[in-house]
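Question (not urgent): is this output format expected?
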Amino acid sequence: MKERVIAVFDIGKTNKKIILFDKKMRVVYENEQKFAEVTDDDGFECDDLILIEKWLKSTIQEFIHSDKFDLTHINITTYGATIVCLDEYGNRLTPAYNYLKPVDERIPESIYKRHGGRDEFCRRTASPALGMLNSGIQLLWLMKTKPEVFAKIRHVLHFPQYLTYTLTGKIYSEHTSIGCHTALWDFDNMSYHQWIKTLGITLPEPVPVETYTETEIEGKKIRIGIGIHDSSSSLAPYFSESKGKFILLSTGTWCISMNPFNSEKLTTRQLDKDCLCYMSINRSPVKSSRLFLGHMHEAAVRIISDHFDKPEDYYKHVKYDRKMSEIIRKNSSEKKVFFRGEPFERELTDKIDMYQFRNYEMAYHQLMNELGQLTLQSVNLILPEENDIQNIYITGGFSRNEHFLNLIKEYFPEKKVYRSEISNASALGAALVISGLKPEVNLGLIECKGNKD
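Got this back:
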């Protein structure tokens, strides 16, 4: 008898995955692909939509005809800040423009001036001014720079919804994609911002992320979801926990701190410190801050390793010393070594005096204390004034760094800190919202008690 499975396509900028989950949300199959980028009509690199679409359809066909799996549901989770435009016949007009593509600053400024100025506009849309990373600005950019293309636009889809459209032919919008620093959503009124009317384009009203379309593919009826933004999707599994309110620290190149339980409105100060709001699967704001943690760590470790003539991964062998860390923390509150001394300063100092350290271990403890303080500042930005958060979940690369775990535990002694060994969190979230099931999900939570030595 075939095993009933849910297929999730997890589309990242670098890696593209297909993951199959059984009814207990266990991974039963996983495969990863990397596709070379192509260039858009301006010569800037972007994802190859033709290749991705071909891979989606051929993979689905493969599992429809599988002797082992019975494919019942499909969903897609992918990165945000990317739109695809269609003409009146449903044909694609634009490539998936890269959100790193530069844009003339005068283009978004024209909108800011009409709607209370940059600070007020960004606060209201919970979207720091990030150029093409604000996907709504991509529409404005098209109107200003490619009017002949813009004139043909009839439908605008965010990337997750475009990919599901290629399978179902249905036009949808949902809150997790619209609420992801798009500059399209008015978080004060929880509706599209009024500036959208100036575009002359009607955007589809968002529907619940659990929405699906029953679609027949090669004679088999499959429930296909409408797609979900990957950051919001990665939060979804943690709502199944009954341990109380939580924040999630998703760590790697970036440390993204997410709080789905802070209903306070975003402030201009928080925006200036790299905060924004996502939207949860429950259609409520998720206050989030970000820190370039992994990149900063990598750059500083390289300096330490060069000075002490050690391999770049030597830090993995450095045991956490609580007493050394406490001494450094007292000193580094007044004196920074690796980063500039001002609060929220995230740039390496121009000249780092490595000769003040007796050994690699001491230097690495200093580095982690400074990164820990920056993480603390980042997390504090998303905590409400009445801080009733009980748990901190840490996922990703730094969930395996005992220095980082111990520091977070010491900074928040009143909270329980857990490392989460769950893999494919975004894909799991996408599977959960489309499944209609509420299985007990193993999040691989291990409580961090802190180093007492």
